[in-house]
Design a protein that fits this description.
- There is one protein chain.
- The chain is of the alpha+beta class.
- The chain folds into 2 domains: about 120 residues, Up-down Bundle (Four Helix Bundle (Hemerythrin (Met), subunit A)), CATH 1.20.120; about 80 residues, SCP2 sterol-binding domain (Nonspecific Lipid-transfer Protein, Chain A, 2-Layer Sandwich).
- Helix content is about 50%, strand content about 10%.
- The protein contains 7 helices and 5 strands; from the N terminus they run αααααββββαβα.
- The chain has a 5-stranded mixed beta sheet.
- The chain is globular.
Length: about 230
C-alpha cells in the first residue's frame, strides 16, 4: 500500500504544473509539496538507520525537479523500512520508549495525507484506504495531539466526544484534559458522536476536508470544539 501511494504521489508530481497551488498546505505549490516530501523521506530514513535525530537539512540540489527529489527519497525510506526491525528503539518527538514502528506508521500517514493534498490540488480522485485512514485517526491522538498540545496553549475540549468509523468499525472516545486522549468508546459517556467513514474522519481531523454536520448527533457544540481544534502539525 505504501509503495502504491508513493508511486501515485510521484505521478502527480511529474504530471502537474509545479506552480499549481496546494491550498490544503497554506501557500505551498506542488513543487513545495514534492520538496517537503523528499526531505521528510530522507529524514525518516536517516533516523531509522541510526535511531537518533538527524541534523542534516536534506536540501535538494539546485535545479533538481521536485518529482525526482521525492522519488529518490521515497526509494530510500522504503528500502530502509524493509531493513528495519519495528521493535528497534528510536528517537520520536520526545516520546519515552519509542520504537521504529512509530515511524513505519508516520511515513505511511504522511504519505497518505499528502497524497490527498496532491489529489485535491490537481483535481484527481481522492481516496484513502479505509484501514490506513482508521490507523491515521488513531495516530492523530497518539502522536500528533501530544505534540500540538504540549505546553497547554490549546483551549481544553468541553466534553467527551465519540468518533465512529462507519466502514471499518473502529471507535474512539476522545476525553478532554490538558492533552485530549483517545479511549475505548465503552470507557465512558459521550456528549456527542461523530459518525463517518474512516477517510472522512481522518481528513476532517487533518483539516483537509470539512466535516459534514449530518455526521454529528448529540451536543453539536462539543463535536465542533473537537472538529475545529488544532490537532495536527
Amino acid at each position: 500500500m505504501l509503495r502504491a501511494e508513493a508511486a501515485a504521489l510521484e505521478r502527480l508530481l511529474r504530471t502537474a504544473d509545479p506552480a499549481t497551488p496546494v491550498t490544503t498546505c497554506g501557500s505551498w505549490s506542488m513543487h513545495d509539496l514534492g520538496t517537503h516530501l523528499g526531505q521528510a523521506s530522507r529524514f525518516a530514513a536517516a533516523l531509522l538507520k541510526t535511531g537518533q535525530l538527524p541534523h542534516e537539512q536534506f536540501a535538494p540540489p539546485a535545479g533538481q525537479q521536485s518529482a525526482d527529489w521525492y522519488a529518490e527519497g521515497a526509494a530510500a525510506v522504503l528500502a530502509t523500512l524493509e531493513e528495519t526491525d519495528p521493535t528497534t528503539p528510536t528517537w520520536a518527538f520526545g516520546f519515552e520508549g519509542a520504537v521504529a514502528a512509530l515511524w513505519f506508521r508516520r511515513v505511511a500517514q504522511d504519505t497518505a495525507v499528502h497524497l490527498v493534498d496532491a489529489q485535491l490540488a490537481t483535481g484527481a480522485e481522492v481516496h484513502v484506504d479505509p484501514l490506513i485512514a482508521a490507523d491515521g485517526v488513531d495516530e492523530v491522538f497518539a502522536v500528533m495531539v501530544p505534540r500540538v498540545w504540549r505546553g497547554g496553549e490549546q483551549k481544553p475540549l468541553p466534553e467527551p466526544v465519540a468518533l465512529r468509523s462507519t466502514d471499518t468499525g473502529h471507535n474512539w472516545l476522545i476525553q478532554p484534559g490538558d492533552i485530549p486522549q483517545a479511549r475505548p468508546v465503552e470507557s465512558g459517556p459521550a456528549a456527542a458522536t461523530v459518525e463517518a467513514t474512516a477517510a472522512e474522519l481522518l481528513l476532517a481531523l487533518w483539516k483537509r476536508q470539512p466535516a459534514d454536520p449530518e455526521w454529528v448527533s448529540g451536543d453539536i457544540a462539543a463535536a465542533n470544539a473537537l472538529l475545529t481544534a488544532t490537532l495536527t502539525l
